[in-house]
Structures are given as structure tokens and as C-alpha cells.
Amino acid sequence: MKGTAITLFAVASLALSGAAFAAGARTHEVTGTVLETTPTKIVIQKGLERWEIDLDPQTKVRGEIKVGAKVTITYGMSATKIDAGPLTKLKAAAEEAAAPITASVAPGSQKKEVPAVSPTP
Fold first, then answer.
1. Under 8 Å between Cβ of 32 and 46
2. Nearest partner of 10 among 63, 52, 77, judged by Cα
3. 2-76 maps to which CATH number?
């Protein structure tokens, strides 16, 4: 019964994390055996897969999660960065190259180079 309480707590704690309820974020569940736990992450084994899930200060944990315990974690996914790929980068570089070049120095105010004169021996 104690294991069930820990499992339910783990589910509830991750479900209540800020990312899980961000504007329409859908939640998911994973069940596995705890391999490692720190204040910032929990690592579980699900079949042949190893899952590392970040914990944040809003994650509420009731009881003590121990290595070897079976837990069910509810989590949400939200994007932190989106890179549309190399074509987007190439397009941005092409637009930058095609932009008109503007000089910040007034015409005629640039110092003209004078050929160096070597002293005669």
C-alpha cells in the first residue's frame, strides 16, 4: 500500500508542475522502476528504455521515492525552442546578404591611404 501512495504522489506532483498545465499542454503517463533520483531529476527504467525526467521546485513529492520503487509519472510536454532547420538559416543568411549595405561614415571623410615611402640610404 505504501508503494501505491508513493506512485500516486509522484503522479500528482508531476501533474501539478508548471509545464504540465501551460496553455493547453496535454499530459502523458509513464510507469517504471526508479533507477536514480536527485532534487532536480528522476530516472526510471521502462522496459528497455531509460527515462530521465526533470523536476522543478513546483514538483510536489509526498513520501520518499527510493531506488527500486515502481512509480507512475504524469508529465507534460512544452517546447522551449523551435528550430525550423537548415533551410530557415540559409534563408535568413540570404536575406541578410541581399540587404543594402549602408555606410555610417560620410562620403569623402575617409582617410586616404598614402603610399609608404622608404627612406633612402
1. yes
2. 63
3. 2.40.50
Q: What is the pLDDT of residues 79-93, one digit of tens each?
A: 888 887 777 777 777
**Model confidence at 56: pLDDT above 60:** yes
Q: Is 26 in contact with 78 (CB distance < 8 Å)?
A: no
Q: Where are the domains of the chain?
A: 2-76
Could you give the CA distance from residue 30 to residue 73 in angstroms, rounded to a whole number?
5
Please report how many Cα atoms fall inside a 13 Å half-sphere around the Cα of residue 53, on the Cβ side: 31
Q: Which pLDDT belongs to residue 21? A: 47
Q: What is the DSSP letter of 111?
A: P
